[in-house]
Amino acid sequence: MPTFKLDGRDVDFRPGEMLIEAAARAGVSIPYYCYHPELSRPANCRMCLVEAKGAPKLIPACQQPVNDKMDIQTTSERVKIAQADVMEFLLINHPLDCPICDQAGECKLQQYAYLFGRPASSMEEAKLKLEKRKVLGPHVVLDQERCIACTRCVRFTQEITKTSELTMIARGNHNVVDLHPKHELANAYSGCVVDMCPVGALTDRQFRFQARVWYVQPTPSTCTLCSRGCNITVDRRGERAQRTEMKRIRGRRNPDVNASWICDEGRYGYQQPGKGARPVRARGATAAAAELMPALERAQERAAEMLRAHAGQRGWLGALASGAETLEELSALAEVARAADPEALLVVPAFQDGDEDAILRRLDKVGNRRGARLLGFGEDAAGLAKRRVLLVADADARPRAGLPEALVADLARDAMIAFVAHERAWAERAEVLLPLANAYEKEGTIVNFDGVAQRIRRIVPPPMDARPLHHHLADVAAGAGLAPIETDTRSRLSALAAGPLAPLDPSRLLEWGARLPKERGGDVTYFEEPAQLFTAAPKAYAEGEYQPFMKAQLPPPAIHVGAGAPSRDNERFEWFGPSRTNVEEASAPEKAP
Amino acid sequence: MAYENVLIKGCDDPANVTLDGYMKRGGWEVARKALKSRTPEEIVTLVKDSGLRGRGGAGFPTGLKWTFLPKGSTKPTYLAINADESEPGTFKDRYLLERNPHLLLEGVVLTCHAIGAKHAYIYLRGEFPRATKILQAAINQASAKGFLGKKIFGTDLTVDVSLARGAGAYICGEETGMLESLEGKRGYPRNKPPFPAVEGLFACPTIINNVETVMTVVPIVERGIDWFKSLGSEKNWGPKVWCVSGHVERPGIAETALGIPLDELLNEHFGGVRRGHRYKAAIPGGCSCGIMTSDEFGAKMDFDALRAVGSSLGTGGVMVFDETTCIPEALLNFTEFYAEESCGQCTPCRQGTGWAARILRRIVHGGGTMRDLDEVVRLANGFDGKTICALADAAAIPIRTYLKKFPQEFAEHVERGRCSLDVGLAACAGNLHFISGGH
């Protein structure tokens, strides 16, 4: 690999790589505002200026391809003065309203002001007055006074969504972001501009004034609302089980899956009406019995009855899942169904809805699409009508399962036990309804349409008696006299990794996942953490925001019922390990370099 | 030896704007002959060897710029003529465009022949409606006659000329800002490299030349290098059109050889300082040049000699100040101009020019402190050389040189809280609005 001189030492670079990127790989952090790895590079913030030997002027590191003749200084006196000047210029017209600004705590201006700015400014003039709260669209509000004109949001609408709602208007220090006349920022990815805004100019109308960012606990997870499987960071507020609440979802960078973006459906989709409520119902039981134990006992009874009624028969049982369930849950469903009836019909029906585009969104709304296929679930639901008994798992908040109404009416003449995360669709049909944890309430693994296996994480505890599917199934199976099934999520994944997911090493999934081989026997490609461009900052202000998984504090365990050993799901997965250098853990002796 | 005008030749004849009038003076003959008798390489070598330096302000060698075009590119090459003359105090291109449009077109044909361009764009300043009309008429006449378009003079050369008009932004006179504007975008200057010769208009190789530069190509081809080098001094050869405004007896246009001393230029061609007054200072080539005190008027007007007195030739748009001019007021006027015309792209320029203007406003109108004088220079150093284009650098130059050469006036303004000259502020401002061309 060719090398160039960076702060006096020889550093490798890839041909065509920008200086800021090569420096980041070498552990040298260069500050920046306007640079974004997925967008064009206007080099307009001038924060990344560095000194190149022989060049009369300072050069922008974000826009300068590296060559082997370069001799770069990133911390020379000239560079430091330029950085302090840029900070001073950025702040003279900035309102400095950090105490009421949502961005405070994750703001590049704050971060760099501490690191590179001067303690005081000699600005005595009145600051400019601009639009303070301009609603741009359904999700985003703009504060032009806080804007530093980095144009990330403008470039996003021009280059990624290609909708160009935003533009820069006026000149000089009146140059601000604004909407084109008669437009509003209402594209399917509008929330992304909030994620990428380095300051508090663009804020999320839902999250605005809802929580200070230092009080929220960020957890990396994966979106299950379509088959793309975008990487997300979910912020939760509150530690105690009853008070814990999801506050927002942000896109998380994964160049192999979703770049840095997520769609608005994924970002706001968790705010479904009635998201907390879970049905518990056993037909024929008294109203007072609308609790988990009686309902579970009823399910066990019915399962045992059905097993007896169909003893020795085959092809009487159907298992229908939505595909929002994890691999661990679906495999449990397959295991129980096949134990009861070796010819059980397993279906995750096709569910196509909404729009598809070339950016991220997919018509196929089944989050665990490839995973379901790997576990032997078919897509054609028509055969289910012939099955006398049906097990239904629907962890998806969108009521449907993609089934035609006529077919739903025709399903399961003898018995139907449904595990659901919402009240609709199955309430009328199922004999027993049991509450299921949804995609933000459980640990697990999914495989997207493209064969990328990723973790989903438990952000908040499930409400009331809701549990992951394999916990319910273990109890039903035990009550019905079937062979016990594994309830520990981690063990279930280990078993799958040795079977249909082979040769996956679950400990290497981390936050970025892995691409499974196209055909059995191929190799698994493990994704690496995307390069962090700026890491020199104090931890509290650092860009990758969230703490390593091991440090995450979970709410107390949910209630465990029925047979089997208590689940260890509430313990953290040791496999994930500390993924990012952490102040406390860096000193631990076993920490690998 | 009396100087013979070549660029403003015939400009006093109203018929010169028509094809017939121009051809009566032997117009279009140079191109007619050269297209048939000289190869593109010969013309490039000729211009390169002549040492012609660009007349747009930076003084970059024109022939050298032409050789930067990538060899063997499969993309079309474009010629873009920068006629967005918006430097305050400069009006030479407007004069030439309105009175000698065919000389420009002839130069365009020669240049296109030399660099292998089939399409030339002329980016006209939006405030030049008259020049637009005249130039468009000239293009139509030349096209009808077969001097533009396909098979010019029976050769295989094709040159189409398109006129584009700006919308009143100083920054669109910056060459890459102009390219963005030509492409229909907001006039944000581009990062360099890539330079326009490699990746310019529509991402194709593009040569950008000033109006006067392209016009000068015609007499070079006609008269040769020896004639060209008989004018001016070492590395600063050739004819130059001057536009002088401000406190002289006869403001206007004149053409001489490069390197004429400033006092000679003013006294011989523009009638000297206005009657009853005396010189105080001058800006030799638009407001982006350092100011010269009257002691320095003996300096030769060329690209290199003016460096020695802390200034530069710029566009050749001389602004003359007599003793009634308030220097701080002039600096405020120019700095407000830069603050307003900053495109707003780079942080230092966007915030710095506006801040400097606000401090200067206080110095001029009362409320300034002695610390402000240091502060405004510190700001200028803060935004100088740290931006994509040279607008911030240009804004820093007046701030530094005015304060360096006239510190006493600034100090008096701070102490008295108002202008120390007997003329009122309105008088100063009125003069400057006149000479800065309507901004």
Can you walk through the features of this model?
- The complex is a heterodimer of chains A (593) and B (439).
- Chain A is of the alpha+beta class and 593 residues long.
- Chain A is built from 13 helices and 23 strands.
- Chain A has helices at 19-25, 77-92, 108-116, 152-160, 192-196, 264-268, 292-309, 327-340, 369-374, 405-410, 469-479, 489-498, 583-586, and strands at residues 3-6, 9-12, 49-52, 59-60, 71-73, 134-135, 140-142, 166-169, 176-179, 202-204, 216-222, 231-237, 245-251, 281-282, 317-321, 345-347, 389-394, 415-420, 432-435, 444-447, 452-456, 514-515, 525-526.
- In chain A, the strands form six sheets. In chain A, strands 14-19-18-17-15-16 form a six-stranded mixed beta sheet, covered by helices on one side.
- In chain A, helix 2 packs across helix 3 and helix 7 (292-309) crosses helix 11.
- The model of chain A is unreliable at 537-593 (pLDDT under 50).
- The model of chain B is unreliable at 424-439 (pLDDT under 50).
- Chain B folds into three domains: 14-230, 3-Layer(aba) Sandwich (Rossmann fold), CATH 3.40.50; 233-322, Ubiquitin-like (UB roll) (Roll), CATH 3.10.20; 327-435, NADH-ubiquinone oxidoreductase 51kDa subunit, iron-sulphur binding domain (de novo design (two linked rop proteins), Up-down Bundle).
- Helices cover 43% and strands 12% of the residues of chain B.
- In chain B, strand 5 and strand 6 (236-237) form a beta hairpin.
- In chain B, strands 8-7-11-9-10 form a five-stranded mixed beta sheet, sandwiched between helices. Chain B has a four-stranded parallel beta sheet with strand order 3-2-1-4, with helices on both faces. A two-stranded antiparallel ribbon of chain B has the order 5-6.
- By secondary structure, chain B is α/β, with parallel strands linked by helices.
- The A-B interface holds A 41-47, 49, 56-58, 60, 63, 82, 85-86, 88-90, 92-93, 122-123, 125, 128, 148-149, 167-168, 170-175 and B 169, 171, 186, 188, 191, 339-348, 350-355, 358-359, 362, 375, 382-383, 385-388.
